[in-house]
């Protein structure tokens, strides 16, 4: 139980916190039209790049220590997707770190394109992997289900991260950038709601129900998408950005929780480890809270520029 | 392959998961001689070795340069002198640009065990996974979170808090090195466990952590890291001093710090190096490969050379004698030229350790060939080319950038600069005029 909570917590944390970074990367050149605007958007990302991606590093560690059967099976069936996830993750990071290390116009524009492409590829592969876990472990008899569900979850992940990223940029910037980001978020919201609903419907239709848990799962996903759209759209339109951000964060975390409930993997951990990890969780959460609290404001003249 | 027994119904229980591409598109498309030339085991080992090697080249600098940056920042916090601030920002920027690739390569390594050595997880997942989980969940998590705070909190945190944050980054980095070495030490010298139905369980956590193959090796590796960090500092400083680039005081101080750090590193590396023979010689189960003898020979030779070289260097630091030598320019050139030495020695060291372990992945318990996954050689080769090609390209780009930043000198590092100076001329920031 503890292990499942740790795993779901880390995965959901990654989905929303790094999801914001992925969406920010994917829309970098749409929100920022000039080099200066893009540098501002990357400054808004600044402290959160590392703080977001460590959640997946942690999830991988939990998987390795507590769920080696799940890890082995998932990596076996999803081998090409895992490689794609690693490649896009690495490219996204490399783009963000290297883009501003040289002055040349072409150097910067080149890495920006890498950031955009990799930030779309990352949720695409992560979403596909999540769908793969649902319909390949254990293998579903119908080939249609095995193809359609991962494709839809992949597209949903792209849409959800887009919503998260643009809403996040709107809260972290000001002026024209904020307007543009909020507008893009408003436009992406129906897509994420629709794709999540489509994924849920495909799952209901194509995968034979197996127990009461399966009945809870699809409505939860539909609710996540539509609910967050219903709350966030008016909030964004009225400029109540934090309310909008909260709505899309909840909407981004719920599908991951739903998949975890459906899979309900069994842990096989080392017993002494639990105490160590549980003892540390408060410290880790405190460090994260410190970062997110320190940099909650829109970026301004006091913020360090690095990326 | 070993299977878990006596474990109720679980997800991993279903017959044999089929693959996304059941017919293995890669090998059926290119089925040819390559399949017979390289086995999947070889491809998996090569992939791991190359990725780990790249990762380690960056780790050496992260762990070695970290203390140098922390020392300069502490001096800055105490004295508030500009030369210390500049040194912190200059070395800190090199530290960060190196760190970026350390992370990126570490990410690629993390899933290697599950991707290519699932047999290792079946047999030893519980034991071997525990230190790696502590490492990723605790050490990396804190290290990275705090590093973000350090970089971007430059103008916002109190200067003492800011300094402490960086010391914590260094400390958590060392903690993660310990965790990794515990995992790797278990492979080299398995202790503190028992085998039940072919699955290893932890019986003695203290023995696992205090494993000489973990603790002594950690001392040895940290020595190597300090040497590498020191050689970067010394080499770059000597380059600037040779060219008289207007930052004489900063680079003299840096060079002096580098020599002291390097001397400590040489002492640790040689001392812990010999102490490792306590368990290496017992490990007669592991086969002896000719490469091991050669690599070990070079490492010992290099170790002694560095150790003996540290003594005159320390002597030359007294009263800044080095900076007044008549032939100092030649010495500066030499100090820059030898920058790669500790890196070469450290890679030779890992070759000694990892090849010395063969044919076992877990000495005496599990053979490497029994631990690899069911993927075809071609599948593993394709991922090898993709991942290693990617990291090699990025590594070269990063080293070129590091060289450029090192040559540019401490005139105006981006790290810690006010926003108006951190950006390029054509990048007016959207917030610069409005204040919060
Ligand atoms: C002796 C030191 C050492 C060794 C042998 C290894 N590492 Fe490492 N690793 C570090 C020392 C380190 C570090 C110094 O702590 C790094 C470098 C840059 C950083 O962020 O932390 C790091 C980063 C790093 C990251 C990125 C963490 C992040 O996103 O913050 C991962 C996932 C790994 N490593 C994983 C591994 C694995 C699976 C290894 C086993 C083969 C391994 N490392 C060997
Ligand atoms: C006289 C000096 C040295 C001796 C006697 C020595 C001895 C050894 C031995 C026996 C091993 C293998 C341990 C194993 O298989 O478990 C080893 C590994 C290693 N050595 Fe050295 N070494 C020396 C100097 C150095 C130097 C100068 C460096 C780097 C700058 C270095 C870096 C490494 C590394 C990174 C490893 C792999 C990790 C480990 O096993 O600790 N060594 N060394
Ligand atoms: C970062 C420094 C490291 C370097 C440079 C390094 C280098 C190598 C090399 C050269 C091999 C290939 C050996 C062969 O096939 O003959 C290898 C294999 C391997 N290493 Fe390491 N290694 C490092 C760290 C680690 C750590 C920390 C672990 C475990 C926690 C580890 C686990 C393995 C495993 C599982 C294999 C593949 C199976 C095998 O060949 O035994 N390595 N590594």
From TrEMBL, chain A:
InterPro entries: Cyt-d_oxidase_su2. GO terms for cellular component: cytochrome complex; plasma membrane. Coiled coil: none annotated. It is found in: Cell membrane. GO terms for biological process: aerobic electron transport chain. One of its GO terms (molecular function) is electron transfer activity. It comes from the Bacteria. Keywords: Cell membrane, Membrane, Transmembrane, Transmembrane helix. It is a multi-pass membrane protein. The chain crosses the membrane at residues 41-67, 74-91, 111-137, 188-209, 215-232, 244-267, 273-293. Belongs to the cytochrome ubiquinol oxidase subunit 2 family. This is Cytochrome d ubiquinol oxidase subunit II.
Automatic annotation (TrEMBL), chain B:
GO terms for molecular function: electron transfer activity; heme binding; metal ion binding; oxidoreductase activity, acting on diphenols and related substances as donors, oxygen as acceptor. InterPro entries: Cyt-d_ubiquinol_oxidase_su_1. Its main location: membrane. Pfam families: Cyt_bd_oxida_I (PF01654). The keyword Metal-binding applies. Keywords: Cell membrane, Electron transport, Heme, Iron, Membrane, Metal-binding, Transmembrane, Transmembrane helix, Transport. One of its GO terms (biological process) is aerobic electron transport chain. The chain crosses the membrane at residues 48-72, 93-115, 127-152, 164-187, 218-239, 259-279, 291-318, 330-351, 380-402. GO terms for cellular component: cytochrome complex; plasma membrane. It is found in: Cell membrane. It is a multi-pass membrane protein. Belongs to the cytochrome ubiquinol oxidase subunit 1 family. This is Cytochrome ubiquinol oxidase subunit I. It comes from Cellulomonas xylanilytica.
């Amino acid at each position: 139980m503890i292990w499942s909570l740790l795993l779901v917590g880390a995965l959901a944390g990654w989905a929303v916190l790094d999801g914001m970074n992925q969406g920010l990367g994917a829309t970098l050149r749409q929100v920022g039209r000039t080099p200066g605007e893009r540098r501002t958007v990357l400054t808004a990302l600044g402290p959160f790049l590392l703080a977001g991606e460590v959640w997946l590093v942690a999830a991988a560690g939990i998987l390795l220590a507590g769920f080696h059967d799940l890890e082995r099976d998932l990596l076996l069936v999803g081998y090409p997707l895992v490689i794609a996830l690693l490649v896009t993750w690495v490219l996204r990071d490399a783009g963000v770190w290297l883009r501003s290390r040289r002055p040349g116009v072409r150097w910067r524009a080149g890495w920006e394109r890498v950031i955009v492409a990799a930030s779309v590829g990352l949720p695409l592969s992560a979403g596909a992997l999540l769908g793969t876990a649902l319909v390949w472990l254990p293998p579903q008899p119908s080939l249609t289900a095995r193809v359609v569900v991962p494709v839809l979850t992949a597209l949903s992940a792209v849409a959800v991260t887009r919503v998260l990223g643009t809403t996040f940029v709107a809260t972290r910037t000001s002026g024209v950038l904020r307007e543009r980001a909020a507008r893009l978020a408003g436009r992406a919201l129906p897509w994420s709601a629709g794709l999540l609903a489509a994924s849920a419907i495909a799952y209901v239709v194509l995968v034979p129900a197996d127990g009461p848990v399966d009945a809870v799962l699809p409505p939860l996903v539909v609710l996540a998408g539509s609910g967050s759209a219903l709350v966030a759209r008016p909030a964004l339109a009225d400029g109540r950005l934090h309310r909008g951000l909260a709505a899309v964060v909840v909407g981004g975390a719920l599908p991951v929780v739903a998949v975890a409930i459906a899979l309900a993997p069994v842990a096989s951990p080392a017993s002494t480890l639990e105490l160590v990890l549980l003892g540390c969780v408060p410290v880790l959460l405190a460090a994260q809270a410190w970062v997110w609290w320190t940099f909650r404001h829109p970026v301004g003249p006091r913020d360090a520029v690095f990326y | 392959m070993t299977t878990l027994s006596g474990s109720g119904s679980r997800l991993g229980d279903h017959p044999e998961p089929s693959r996304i591409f059941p017919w293995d598109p890669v090998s059926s498309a290119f089925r040819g001689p390559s399949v017979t030339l390289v086995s999947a085991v070889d491809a998996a080992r090569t992939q791991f070795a190359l990725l780990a090697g790249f990762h380690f080249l960056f780790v050496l600098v992260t762990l070695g340069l970290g203390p140098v940056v922390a020392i300069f920042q502490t001096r800055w916090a105490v004295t508030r002198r500009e030369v210390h601030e500049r040194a912190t920002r200059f070395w800190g920027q090199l530290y960060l640009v190196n760190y970026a690739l350390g992370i990126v390569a570490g990410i690629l390594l993390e899933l290697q065990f599950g991707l290519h050595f699932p047999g290792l997880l079946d047999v030893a997942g519980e034991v071997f996974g525990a230190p790696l989980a502590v490492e990723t969940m605790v050490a990396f998590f804190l290290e990275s979170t705090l590093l973000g705070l350090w970089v971007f909190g430059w103008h916002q945190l109190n200067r003492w808090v800011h300094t402490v944050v960086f010391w914590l980054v260094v400390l958590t980095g060392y903690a993660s090195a310990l965790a990794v070495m515990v995992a790797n030490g278990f492979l080299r010298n398995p202790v503190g466990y028992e085998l039940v139905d072919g699955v290893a369980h932890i019986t003695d956590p203290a023995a696992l952590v205090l494993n000489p193959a973990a603790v002594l090796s950690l001392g040895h590796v940290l020595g190597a890291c300090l040497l590498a960090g020191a050689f970067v500092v010394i080499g770059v400083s000597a380059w600037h001093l040779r060219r008289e680039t207007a930052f004489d005081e900063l680079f003299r101080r840096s060079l002096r710090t580098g020599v002291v750090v390097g001397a400590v590193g040489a002492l640790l590396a040689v001392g812990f190096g010999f102490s490792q023979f306590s368990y290496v010689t017992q490990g007669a189960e592991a086969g002896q490969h000719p490469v091991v003898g050669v690599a070990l020979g070079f490492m010992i030779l290099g170790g002694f050379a560095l150790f003996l070289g540290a003594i005159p260097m320390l002597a030359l630091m007294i009263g800044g004698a080095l900076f007044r030598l008549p032939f100092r320019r030649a010495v500066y050139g030499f100090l820059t030229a030898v920058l790669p030495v500790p890196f070469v020695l450290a890679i030779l060291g890992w070759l000694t350790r990892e090849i010395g372990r063969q044919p076992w992945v877990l000495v005496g318990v599990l053979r490497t060939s029994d631990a690899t996954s069911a993927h075809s050689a071609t599948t593993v080769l394709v991922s090898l080319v993709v991942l290693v090609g990617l990291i090699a390209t990025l590594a070269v780009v990063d080293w070129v950038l590091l060289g450029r930043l090192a040559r540019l000198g401490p005139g105006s590092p981006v790290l810690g600069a006010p926003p108006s100076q951190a950006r390029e001329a054509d990048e007016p920031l959207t917030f610069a005029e409005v204040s919060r």
